[in-house]
Each structure stands twice: as structure tokens, then as C-alpha cells.
Amino acid sequence: MAWRNIWRNKVRSVVIITSIALGLVAGIFIMGLYDGMLTDRLNTVIRQEVSHLQLHNPEFQKDYEAIYSIEHAMEIVELIRSEDYVKAVSARTIAHGMLATSTGSAGVQITGVQQDDEHLVSRLNDKLIEGEGLVGDRRNPIVIGKKLADKVKISLGSKLVLTFTDREYNIVSAAFRVTGIYQSANAPLDERNVYVQSADLNRLMLLEDACHEIAVLLNSDNELVVAQQKLSGRYPELMIENWQQLSPETKLMIETTDTYSIIFIGIIMLALMFGIINTMLMAILERTREIGMLVALGMNKLRLFLLVLWETVLLTLAGAPFGLILSWLVIMYFNQSGIDISSFSGAAMSGFGFSSLLYPEFPWLKIPLVLYIVGVTALLASLFPSYKALRLVPVEAMRQ
Amino acid sequence: MDTIIDAHHVTKTYNPKTIPVVAVNSVHMHLERGEFTALVGPSGSGKTTLLNLIGGLDKPDTGSIMIHGTDITRLSANQLIDFRLRNIGFVFQAFNLIPVLSARENVELIMQLQGLPKNEINQRVETLFHQIGLEDKLDTRPAQLSGGQQQRVAVARALASRPQVVLADEPTANLDSKSAANLLDIMAKLNQEENMTFIFSTHDQRVIERARRVITLVDGKIFSDTAVVDTSLPHGISPA
């Protein structure tokens, strides 16, 4: 009876069902967009920035002093590389210092790497937009970010001087020549991170076979916990951290974005709730006489309440399947084609480490929660119309 | 005799604080089981108000109304709903069938509200539709039925719960002569077969002629109460 009542005024019901469906499409699309952005950011964080796991001397991250290195690094790297859950390993020597040119200077993190290893861990070669990077026989090559290059006004082939301290706390300055300029999705990182050959940096910092950081990329994200436990057991003298510990802001971003998208859906449903209430109130008003008659015949208040509630829930839930299907289609379309927002907010997105080409993902895991919100909306929307129906006095209602 | 309705000093005044209108004024009424009674009188005489009071749709200001031993003026709103469901059948002037339900579903609804088992409901529906002669219209929506057919379904609905009393407010007002006569035949037959008490409020002379008792109301008071004696015919059945 409730279902048939909905279709007494087909146009009105179709309008409200369509509104609910479109509201869901908007909400789920935003969720999908956030999910796509987060997946993209997570991939960038893991596969281009911090990797799955990093090994450090426990003292190193306090002050980034050169003396707190990992000794016999190459031996450790080879052992880790031989594990079946490991995809790639890169040993990094790290120094914090000043980059100076004839036209400017900037504080930088100098990362000494072997380019091939680093490429496997953080796709360094793919980020190169000019030059060949650290390959070749040139002495002291350096790869710098485009943003930094623009800031200090240098280009491919330019010379610059890096100043930093070695492991004996001596200030060391060395000239480097720009052999590559890279650009990643993370503009702040591009501005402060430069790459040199680990052999050059180790020599200048008197580190020999040591490094400061071993970055480990796993075959699968799912192996993170097991891999961390295994490596922690094998190297108890080292601090082994996963990406969530290394990039807590990313973890926080994922958590807060989930909350924001739920709030967004909640706001949409709240707005729709008033439409549903209005529709149901009109339906009750039109059926005043009939409701009075039902009560006269013996329909008790509980049954009447359930009738109106059920009508409201069905009306609301009728829009849900259409909304879900439509949002899936829209998200799948943009998942293939991508949404290019570079023309209006690309720089801003890059500033927060996000790509300007967004690929929304259908948020399967959040759909039960969305349906729960829709259900709660329906229940809340039914309360006022039910109250109005219950307030009808049969004799007066039947006079109308 | 089995007393079904026993009303004493029943008074109902509308707008008591502004412009009081005494719709029913100290009415006494006594009906036995199986009576076929017409409430007549000019417009505004209090017929519908008295029916509403007897049906428990409205409460009198003073007096008591006993329906088969229960003083309905003392029942709470929820108790009254349940009482109506089990003891009172209503037939309205405008039929008041639910348009989204079929004829069968309209009749079933009352029994579902009573919580009767499915097989009992089915049997009762078949019996009632046979009695009203609409076996072939079970699954027809009200909009596809004529006015007379709709009112017959409304009668079946009123009788579905096997009530003590059937209250019919101007049941023939919207029907043509043939449909009205047909409806009255059916109600008289059901009155006979089911031994239910029928009370009609009406202006319709055709109904008055078929009633076995006619109570005339004027200005909310019983002006006359006349029993029609026709020993040759069962209750309300018209001569051929």
C-alpha cells in the first residue's frame, strides 16, 4: 500500500526520486574524487617520495647529522633486495645545506643516490624534464627541481656550489654542475630536494660505505606490516618506519578527507530531507480525508505512523539505486578520461602534492555508509509528516 | 432481545465557548440486534453527529453510549480505535475506498488490521463478494467501478470485520435509483444473513421506505421513533 501510495502523484514522486538520485551522484562523485585524489597522493608518497619503508640510524632523524649513518650499507641493501617481498631498494646519503649560485641561494636537502636504484624506488628518471640526470662520467653532477631552478635562476649545465657539513662537522663546499632538472607532482619537494651521486656525496662527507637512509619499495602494499616486522627483527639497531610514520600528514589527510566526504554527503541529504518532508506533507494533506477514514475504520496510530514512515523510506530509497548506478557510470567515465584541473587550480594542487589530473574512483567501501545516511535521512524525514498524520482527528479529517 | 445500542442523555454541542450549536440534545436511543433503522430529519438536525457519536468517532459532552455492553464514552482514543475496528462498520456517502487498492484489498485491509489469518481473510472476502454480487470485480481498482459497485464494496468492507453495528451515512446519496435499490437489497439481505444492526442517516425516501424503524431528529432531539411492521417480509426486503 505504501509503495502504491508513492505513485499516486507520479510527477511529484519522480521529481523527488530524481533529486535524491542526483544528490547521491553529487555526493558519491565527490567521495570518488577524494578517493581518487588520495589514491594518487598515496601512490605518489609511496612510489615517488618516501617508499613503503625506510631504515635509519635511530639518532639520524633528530638532527640529521652526518655522523648518524648506517654502516656497511651496501651489504644491508643487498640482503634486503634479496627478500621476495621487496621490489626495489635505494641507499641514500643525506645532507642538509645551502645551494648557492651567482644569482641566488637556497636551503636544500642534498640526497646522494645511485640513479638506477633510485629510479626503481622513486621513479627519478621519469621525473626528469631536462637532461639525463646523474649518469655519465662527469664529476659532481646534480639534478635539481624545476621550481628551485626557476627560483635561483639556473638551467641545465649551470654550475652551483653546495655547502654542508661532513661527518667530522667540517664545513664542506663543492661545485656541482646541473645535469638534470626534474619536476614531480609535489612542488614543495621539488624546491628543497636535490639529487647527487651517492659516491660524490659519500666522498665529500667522509662516509665511505655508509648511508643515512635505505628506502625499500615492496611488491605489494599489503606486505607492509609483515615486511616491517621482519626487517625490525633482523636489524634491531636501526629504526624502521613505514610510510604512515614517515608521512603522518598523508595519513591524517586520508582520515580527514574521509570525514569531509561523509559531512558533504550529510549536507546534501539534509538539503534533500526538506524536499522529502515537503513531498510527504503534500501527500498527507491530499489524503487527509482518506487518513481520517482509515483511523475511523480502525487503523491505530502505530500502523498509521508505520504507513507514513514506510512511504517516506520507500520514496527515499527508490532514488538510491538510480543514484548509485548513475554515480558509478559517471565515476567510471572520469576514471578513464581523468579530470584535468590544471587550467584553474593545477598550481594549488601541486603545492599540496596532488596531481592536477584527477582520476575519481568508485568508493565501494563507503557505499554501505552512504546507504546508512540515506536510510537515516528517510527516517528523519518521515517523522514530521507522520506526526501531522497522527494529529488528524477522524471526524474533522473526513469533513474535508 | 439482545441490546446492541443503549444511549442515554447524549448531548453534543459545537463551539461551546463561542457560538454554541447544540447538534445532539439529550438523546435517548435503544436498538436491538438485527434492527434496520433509518435516522431521518432535515439538514442540521444532528443525524451525522449522532452517527459519529454512536460510532465512537466523536465524544458526547454528556451522557453515555453503550455498544453491546461497553460504554464507549469512557474509552481512550486508542481503545476507541480498537473498539471501532472490532465492533463498528462504516459506510460513507462518498464510498471512501482507497484508490490504490483493488476491491479485494480494500475489504481485506480491515481484516488485516484485525490480524486475522490469511485463509480466513480469503474465505470471508469470497463470501462477501458473492453476497454483494461482485465476484468478477475482485481485482478491479475503485476507479474502474461504478458508483453503485463502489458502494457495494464499501458495504463489504464495513461487514468484513463482522461488526455489531453498521453505520451508514447517506449511503445512497451519490447513487442512481437502480444502484440505490440494488444496494438496499444487498444491505437488507446482509442484515438478515449476518444478523447485524444497521443504522442509516438519510434523506432518501427509498431508504426510509425500506427501514423497519424510522427515528426522526429535529434540532438534535428525537422527534419521533416509528416501528414499521410488515410481517410478510424479512427485515427491509422490498416487495416485488
Explained architecture:
The complex is a heterodimer of chains A (400) and B (240). Chain A has 400 residues and is an alpha+beta fold. In chain A, helix 14 runs antiparallel to helix 16 (367-390). The model of chain A has no long low-confidence stretch (mean pLDDT 89). Chain A has 2 domains: 2-44 and 250-399, no CATH class; 51-246, no CATH class. In chain A, strands 2-3-8-5-7-6 form a 6-stranded mixed barrel, surrounded by 4 helices. Chain A has a two-stranded antiparallel sheet with strand order 11-12. Helices cover 58% and strands 19% of the residues of chain A. Chain A is elongated. By secondary structure, chain B is an alpha/beta fold. Chain B has a single domain (3-227), classed as Rossmann fold (3-Layer(aba) Sandwich). Chain B has helices at 47-54, 77-87, 103-114, 118-132, 147-160, 177-194, 205-210; strands spanning 3-14, 21-32, 36-40, 62-67, 70-71, 88-91, 165-169, 197-201, 213-218, 221-227. In chain B, the strands form 2 sheets. Chain B has a 6-stranded mixed β-sheet, sandwiched between helices. In chain B, a hairpin with a 2-residue loop joins strand 4 (62-67) and strand 5. In chain B, helix 5 runs parallel beside helix 6. The longest helix of chain B is centred in the C-terminal third of the chain and has 18 residues, at 177-194. Chain B is globular, with a radius of gyration of 17 Å. Residues 231-240 of chain B have low confidence and may be disordered. The chains are: A alpha+beta (400), B alpha/beta (240). Chains A and B meet through helix 13 and helix 17 of A and helix 2 and helix 3 of B.
